[in-house]
Design a protein that fits this description.
Layout lengths: L1 H25 L4 H21 L13 H25 L15 H23 L3 H11 L14 H17 L4 H19 L16 H4 L19 H6 L28 H10 L2
Helix pairs in contact: 1-2, 1-7, 2-7, 3-6, 3-7, 4-6, 4-7, 5-10
């Protein structure tokens, strides 16, 4: 079973959950069916993390469970709100004729993933270099462990900035509503795969895709984590010169995580919302 989970987790989420979501959208299934599927994906990842943990201690609540849940609910709502608004704004899109609406749904979703990945990666990269952006982004790094739910642990202001950077070009191109719905689901699944505490492997695909094998290096405390900014792919990190291969030593201890110079980073939800406005 551990071996099956180690090499089967990625296909289950990347192809299984995403593929089923695309099928539901193609069948015009009600929205609640995708939300139920997303809850099933989250529950599955939490179970897999307990069967093949990267760091067993990170599966235990460290006084951060409620705070992470609040971040997850708020930021998932913001993600979907932005993507729901896209179809409403397409009437004002300046270049709708450029969107490949004649392509099959799966190819349109893949195209939207690449466009979104570029915008979010650049916003993420800038957030490590521009002071006021970093103050908001630091909340995502002020953690004590890495596990699937961490992908949604972001300050809502930074969530809006990153999401806006990703969806703005899609709005310009007039992305259709079904593609936007599928993209929102794919983002949620990718965040689970990227921050998972499961010791799953993706083989040669680790050179192309930004899953946990790549992204753990980004959460190393201090400058050593100034790498691997991509959400879906390693393409933009290669172009930026910020790609760190999974062969390097990845963090396994809480002391290796967090914000440099702030060992007592606030852990309450309210305190984290206030953090960017109280520090310089």
């Amino acid at each position: 079973m551990p071996l099956l989970l180690r090499y089967g987790t990625f296909p289950l989420f990347f192809l299984g959950f995403n593929g089923l979501a695309l099928w539901l959208i193609a069948q015009a299934a009600p929205d609640w069916s995708r939300y139920a599927l997303l809850l099933a994906a989250i529950a599955s990842m939490l179970l897999i993390e307990r069967r093949i943990p990267w760091q067993p201690a990170w599966n235990r609540d460290q006084g951060d469970g409620l705070k992470d849940l609040l971040h997850g609910v708020v930021n998932t709502a913001l993600n979907y709100a932005g993507l729901w608004l896209l179809p409403l704004l397409t009437a004002f899109a300046p270049f709708p004729s450029l969107w490949p609406a004649h392509w099959p749904l799966v190819l349109q979703v893949l195209a939207s993933v690449l466009v979104l990945d570029a915008g979010i990666t650049l916003a993420h990269y800038a957030s490590h270099r521009i002071g006021w952006l970093w103050r908001f982004h630091a909340v995502h790094h002020g953690l004590r462990r890495l596990y699937g739910f961490n992908g949604l642990m972001k300050h809502p202001v930074h969530q809006l900035i990153e999401t806006g950077a990703g969806i703005a070009p899609l709005w310009l191109l007039g992305i259709p509503a079904p593609v936007a719905a599928a993209l929102g689901f794919c983002v949620a699944v990718q965040l689970l795969l990227q921050h998972s505490n499961a010791d799953f492997r993706i083989g040669p695909l680790k050179a192309l895709l930004a899953t946990a094998e790549q992204h753990r290096h980004h959460h190393l405390r201090g400058g050593s984590g100034d790498v691997n900014f991509g959400l879906f792919t390693t393409l933009w990190d290669r172009l930026l010169g910020t790609l760190q291969t999974p062969d390097a030593v990845a963090p396994r201890e809480t002391a290796q995580l967090g914000v440099a110079g702030e060992p007592d980073f606030p852990q309450g939800y309210g305190a984290q919302l206030a953090y960017p406005f109280r520090t310089r």
